[in-house]
Amino acid sequence: MLSELYQEVILDHGKKPRNFGELASATHQAEGYNTLCGDRVIVQVEMDGETVRNIQFVGAGCAICMASTSMMTSFVKGKSINEIECVFEVFHSAVTGGEADMEPLGDLEALVGVKQYPNRIKCATLGWHALSSAFKSPILEEK
Known about the structure:
The protein has four helices and three strands, in the order H-E-E-E-H-H-H. With 143 residues, the protein is an alpha+beta fold. The protein has a three-stranded antiparallel β-sheet with strand order 1-2-3, covered by helices on one side.
C-alpha cells in the first residue's frame, strides 16, 4: 500500500515536474549529466546569502531523475546550504543502502526504493549533485 503511494508520487513528479523552467533571477547554476544513460539537468538557484530563495531546473531524463530533481527543488526552497547538505547526506545514504533516519526526508523517502536498483541511484542523485555544484558556481554578470 505504502509503496503504491510512493510510486504515484514519483510518477506524478516525473510527468509534471515542479519548478521546471528557466530561472531568470538565478545567482548560481550547474549542470548534471549522466553519461551512462543521457540524463541531463541544469539546476538554477537564486540565493539570499546562504539560503535558497528560489530554484528551478531544466533538462531531460528518466522518470526517476525528473521526479527526484522536482522533489528536491520543492524541498530545498527556503532552506540553508547547511540544512540541504545534511539532508542530502541522509538521502544519499538511504538510496545507497546505508542506515539513515528517514524523518528528515519527508516526501523524498518515496525515492529510497531505488536502492534495490543500483543502476538507478545516479538517476535519483543527479539533481542533488548538480545543486551541490551550483552552490559553488555563482553566475558572473557580464560587463
